[in-house]
Amino acid sequence: MKDFSNAIIECVPNFSEGRDMNIIRQITDEIETIEGVRLLDVDPGKATNRTVVTFVGNPQAVVDAAFLAIKKAGELIDMSKHSGEHPRMGATDVCPLIPVSGISMEDTVEFAKQLAKRVGEEANIPVYLYEYAASAPYRSNLADIRSGEYEGLAAKIVKPEWKPDYGPAAFNARTGATVIGARDFLIAYNVNLNTTSTRRANAVAFDIREKGRQKKDDNGKVVKDSNGEPVWVPGLLKNVKAIGWFIEEYGVAQISINLTNMNTTPLHVVFDTACERATARGLRVTGSELVGLVPLQALLQAGEYFLRKQQRSVGVGEAELVRIAIKSLGLDELGPFDPQKKIIEYRLRDVETKKLVDMTVTRFAQETASESPAPGGGSVSALCGAMGAALGTMVANLSSHKKGWDHRWEEFSDHAAHGQELIKEMLYLVDEDTNSFNAIMAAFGLPKATEEEKAARKAAIEAATIYAIKIPFRTMEVAFQAMDLAIQMAAKGNPNSVSDAGVGALCARTAVKGCYLNVRINAQDLKEHPEVKPLLARAEEINAATDAKEAEAWNIVLAAMK
Questions:
Q1: Topology of domain 187-348, per CATH?
Q2: Which residues participate in catalysis according to the annotation?
Q3: I want to staple 436 with a disulfide (CB 3.0 to 4.6 A). Which of 220, 234, 376, 468 is the partner?
Q4: What pLDDT score was predicted for residue 123?
Q5: Are strands 178-182 and 50-57 parallel, antiparallel or unpaired?
């Protein structure tokens, strides 16, 4: 039997209630009763009369929480009285499971089927399976299952080809039907237009969505194939579903988009294509909004894309890339956009985790000065290396938009982007050096009463020590690259910042030298070990090369100051 104790899946149920917060709260309260589940986001929409909820956790816990929420929604929401802009067919309209880590899509499908079976049998709600969990190819697409919506469900559900996968094959006027499945991460995204016309919004939606629109002849009649089926003209973007609607709450029409594969069609491509097609139709995109959560990578890619369009350096920090994406996509037009609440990786961060790199400078200094042996020289060296890389990156960014150097923006942008990678890795090494030391201490604390325990303890100490050699060695390698970056910026970057580049080289030099000492002292008892010996030899080479690099840095910087 497979072990899913460390697996994480995401669940994003859509409930057909977006106005009564008391009902929404009762549903989400059910989710939070299950241990091992974390509620990340609740996003109600008044005009759509729909709430998108996001939670994550262990697969079995997520299934249990989803069942309780679907059951409660069926008790509280009366679909016979429901109205809203969004297509829907049930109190819980759709409930997808998405694998996050430690679990395959195939296994996620099994959990989706388990959930569907419980909803059908215990809650007596008709359930259809979709996407990867679909019982037949024609049931894979959510739009096909939901075609006819709630109003057409009574006639549809009794047809043999639309018999539910679980639950009664009879119309339930109160709950409607629910669609449950397993899918890849989906970005729910709305693009705002400067019009109130749903028809014009739909025209843009049909332009961009993969399905496109029905082909029509010169007289406006739908063209049909030899089987009498409508002929479709594909749209511009793969893995994009879209419709137009009017949102009374905002007083504008929107293009409502489901982006099912951001690797095939990135978020910024959807936005820019919508802008192009809107302009071609005499409209203007004024902004956009994200419903639910978005992967960090989607906004980082967007930030880089818009900077490149401006011929600006992409080698800026993560927070700046996110800020550029928010402004460029107009994500804050209809209301504040808080990255800490809307980016899934930020919401998944363990707030209890205490990292050295998240401390203030003052606290880090005081933590280092305390009686504890960690953080020590390795962590401080890695921090010096990060600051060296940061200075080199700063000079690259300043050089990328120096007046008269516009033709060199991409050259310096590449240097800055490389610098950001070095910064990121060395900040990781700041904490990892302390973690490696703590691992050695933990190994020394293992029991040693029996011969077997002694052998296990010895092996654990050796493994932890080797890791505590590899971490500062890696810091040496990365810091040496940072030193080279700083020297390049001193030689060919903005001359007004040559001293900054020089300081960056010296900071990186300190990181190399400091971690060289750590490698040496940690390897004292393992010099001939087959894993350690080649590391020591390479450490000696890097240490010697650093002396030459230091001299090169001094010569370049001092010559520029004459």
A1: Alpha-Beta Plaits (3.30.70)
A2: 86, 433
A3: 468
A4: 95
A5: unpaired
